[in-house]
Amino acid sequence: MPFGQGRSACVIITMTQNLTIIAILIVAAIVLAVIAYLHRKGTSFTKLVFGSLVVGVVFGIGIQLIWGNTSNITTQTINWLSIIGSGYVALLQTLITPLVAVSLIGAFTRLTDVANLRKIGVTVLATLLITTAIAALLGVLSVFAFHLQGAHFVAGTSADAANLAAIKEHQSALKGVTLPQQIISFFPTNIFADLAGTRATSTIAVVIFSAVTGIAYLGLRKTEPEIAAQVAKGINVLDRLVHGIIKLVLALTPYGIFALITKAAATDSIASIAQLGVFIIAAYVALIAVLIVHTLILLANHINPIRYYKKVWPALIFAFTSRTSAGTLPLNLKIQTESLGINSAIANFAGSFGLTIGQNGCAGVYPAMIATIIAPTVGINVFTPQFILTLVAVVTLASFGSAGVGGGATFSTLMVLGTLNLPVAIMAVIIAIDPIVDMARTAVNVNDSILAGLIAAKATDNLDHKVLDDDENLVANTL
Predict the structure, then answer these.
(1) Among 317, 343, 345, CA closest to 331
(2) DSSP H or E stretch at residue 438
(3) How many CA atoms lie within 13 A of 289 on its CB side?
(4) Under DSSP, is residue 411 helix (H, G, I), strand (E, B) or coil?
(5) Looking at the domain assignment, is residue 75 inside a domain?
(6) How confident is the model at residue 478 (pLDDT cuts 50, 70, 90)?
(7) 474 in helix, strand or coil?
């Protein structure tokens, strides 16, 4: 073909691709316009989010089936849609540390019975950590049930270069750091840097600083009540301001969910999903088993599970679609206080601590599964009680500091693998389908946080049973 004709053909192909990308983006814009119309008409928040999820999955899979998951058309289309999806996530991440700090300090200012403080803290932490240990054990059992130990199911697959690089980057940050040293890193050395999220452990550092500040406030309330009252007033003002900003960001959730899910469905290889499908099924089985354990805890405390899940459903579906426990915190607190009748101080304790400690999905089930899958590849007998008990203990300890945003599960898992001296290469293969598993992990994380608040409120007689037992008392779910 002559040079001129070849160049003309390239121009035509490029123009065709550009027109195709524009056409796809126009369809996406129409979908977003419909979401905006339904939003203005007062459609419930849960319906909007769930609808955006479904439409995003269908739209994304359609793009992948027609143009493939790595084509220029798919890549460029997703790049444009990422302005919405990634922008939404960036806004949420910006607000995480201020929200945690204000919520936790605010919990101390709202605490009326200081004598219950120790019992509240112990009950919340015990619920989070015990359920994490159980979640880790269920993750191990799920690996056994599906015969995943030894990672034979990944035979013939290779790690994506980008995924492997990300794992190596995380690993290098933890290289040579023992578990005790990692725990020491949770403590803040520069609170302003941690408020800016400069470290992987910034969130728990903010939690620790906020808890210390809250305890200092309680001392001030005894010695100088007038100054303490001014502090409480200032915190209340900040709380309202932060939650006002959060409300604006949450209103963008259906649009962000549509863009994020479209990206996942369009770019996550269907072939990889099919090949690693057994791991996805095993993970979901383990996570559902954790929810069953949560349900048994509800029954043991004489709480109607059907009523409970009906009330917390908006938070769970939001967590599932957004994949951020931190972003779910405002809705989490709203449901705890307004639908379940939990004292606001306890709700703030449980919500804040649940972001960084004992996340059942990201820091319980997932690290335990990955470690059990990898261990036999280096000659470890995973069926021995010694291995299982050691793994459960390490996972529970490593659950301190798991961030409530994307990447928290990777961080916790690498801590566990590093402590047990296990290789990470197989993890780089499994991470290819991580978004699918992460949705259920995040929902389980949030449910455990709410459960901890409910159990602590009941144990300290800070639970409004009239609110809890009112089947019609649901969060309005409109933003």
Answers:
(1) 317
(2) helix 434-459
(3) 19
(4) helix
(5) yes
(6) very low
(7) coil
Q: Considering only 147-156, 180-189, 288-297, 435-444, which range has the smallest mean pLDDT?
A: 180-189
Number of domains in the chain: 1
Task: Look at residue 82 and tell me if it is in a domain.
Answer: yes
Token pair of 446 as six digits: 């949030």
**CB atoms < 10 A from the CB of 271, how many?**
10
Quickly tell me which residue has 């027109």 as its tokens.
19
Distance CA 261, CA 318 (A): 13
479 in a structural domain: no
Distance CA 347, CA 103 (A): 9
Type and span of the H or E element at 306? helix 305-322
Residue 391 lies in a domain: yes
Residue 455 pLDDT exceeds 90: yes
**How far, in Å, are 237, 424, 428, 461 from residue 439 at the CA level?**
33, 22, 18, 34
pLDDT of residue 414 exceeding 50, the answer is yes
Angle between helices 434-459 and 277-300 (to 10 degrees): 10
Task: Please state, in angstroms and rounded to a whole number, the distance separating the CA atoms of residues 132 and 368.
Answer: 10
Ramachandran angles phi, psi of 342, nearest 5°: -85, 135
Rounded (10°) angle between helices 277-300 and 305-322: 150
Q: What CA–CA distance (Å, rounded) separates 452 from 120? A: 10
**243 contact partners, CB below 8 Å, separation of at least 6:** 99, 330
Domain coverage including residue 176: 3-469
- Nearest to residue 358, comparing CAs of 457, 456, 446, 454? 446
Q: What's the CATH code of the domain at 325?
A: 1.10.3860.10
> Which among 257, 271, 210, 339 has a CA at the least distance from the CA of 45?
257
Q: Nearest-CA neighbor of 340 among 301, 295, 310?
A: 310
Cα dist. 89→250, 325, 340, 434, 439 in Å? 11, 12, 28, 17, 15
